[in-house]
Amino acid sequence: MPELPDLEVMREGLDRRLVGREILAANAYSPSILKTASIPLEELVGERFAAVSRRGKHLILTCRDDLHVVVHLMLAGRLVIARGATEPTKATAFGLAFDDGSELRIVENGGIKLAKVYLVGDPIDVPAIASLGVEPLSEMFTVAYLKERLVGLRRQLKGLITDQRVIAGIGTAYADEILFEARLSPIRYASALTDEEIERLHRAIMEVLRRGIEEIRSRSDGVLLAEGSRDFMRVYKRTGQPCPVCGGRIAEIRYAQKRTYYCPNCQSKGRAIPDRRSWMKR
Ligand SMILES: [Zn+2]
User: Fold this and answer.
1) Could you tell me which residues come within 8 angstroms of residue 232 by beta carbon, excluding any fewer than 6 positions away?
2) Which of 36, 124, 153, 179 has a 20 to 30 Å separation from 93 between CA atoms?
3) Distance in Å from the first CA to the final CA of the chain
4) What are the residues whose beta carbon lies below 5 Å from ligand 1 (ion)?
5) Centre of ligand 1 from the C-alpha of residue 235, in Å
């Protein structure tokens, strides 16, 4: 699933490609992708995008103050800019055609369709946006904010920092990288953190996300609209490989469909985390 750095680079690409283009047609090829009914899709025809922004894992394409297209790609959605008269395929769920002959499409392969599109007068009308926590690269994300959200919580760090209501935009891959950077175990309870550890976590969140944006931007051709390559990550999907800090082996634990990668030496006092079902209980 794309996370904050991927989406930020997609936002930049969309901003360059779409702003100023007139929308000639809007199609929900897969009608269930459209989660709102109050504003008809035809309302977009003749409009131009004025700005592309991001909130958490949502991309917000703004035509005017009271008209926004909000996109959440979920697990398998991809944004594609189709050129010329390419026919939409079965996997094409949504399309916006522009005056230069291009069409921005949401393509979703595989069985379950999860991507979402909202047509709203205000992005806050999207329930998942209304409940979002702070943007970790904004001025609002301070050590004091983080401390206030963590203090006294019997919740484990991995679950907590991927909770969109606490911090917006972090998913399982960047969470692993952040906890590695902060030298904190993914199963530590928030309530057990010292002030110094909270500061370390705060710094790691910002550093890892900023680095991620730079890495993905440097791998993109300026029009990247897909999830970026993650070859720069230090623990994510690196089970058995040497830790870049201590040289020990990166380990993984599983819970349901999610895997967590970590360095036992750097993050867990040299001990492997028991791989039991309860480890990620919130
Ligand atoms: Zn290590």
Assistant:
1) 211, 212, 215
2) 124
3) 21
4) 243, 245-246, 248, 263, 265-266
5) 9
Place of tokens 């480890």: 279
Q: What is the pLDDT of residues 123-160, one digit of tens each?
A: 999 999 999 999 999 999 999 999 999 888 889 999 99
Tokens representing 147? Answer: 């401390």
Nearest to 230 by CA among 247, 211, 248, 244: 211
Please give the distance, rounded to the nearest whole angstrom, from the Cα atom of residue 223 to the centre of ligand 1: 35
> Distance, CA 39 to ligand 1 centroid (Å)?
52
**CB neighbours of residue 71 within 10 Å:** 25
Domains within the chain, CATH numbers bracketed: 4-130 (3.20.190.10), 143-280 (1.10.8.50)
Cα(200) to ligand 1 centroid in Å equals 16
Residue 243 DSSP class? P
Calculate how far, in angstroms, residue 186's C-alpha sits from the geometric centre of ligand 1: 14
pLDDT in tens, 163-194: 999 999 999 999 999 999 999 999 999 999 99
Q: How far is the CA of 97 from the centre of ligand 1 (A)?
A: 49
> Ligand 1 center to residue 144 CA distance, Å?
29
Three-state DSSP at 163 gives coil
Q: Tens digit of pLDDT for each residue in 67-116?
A: 999 999 988 888 988 887 788 888 999 999 999 999 999 998 877 789 99
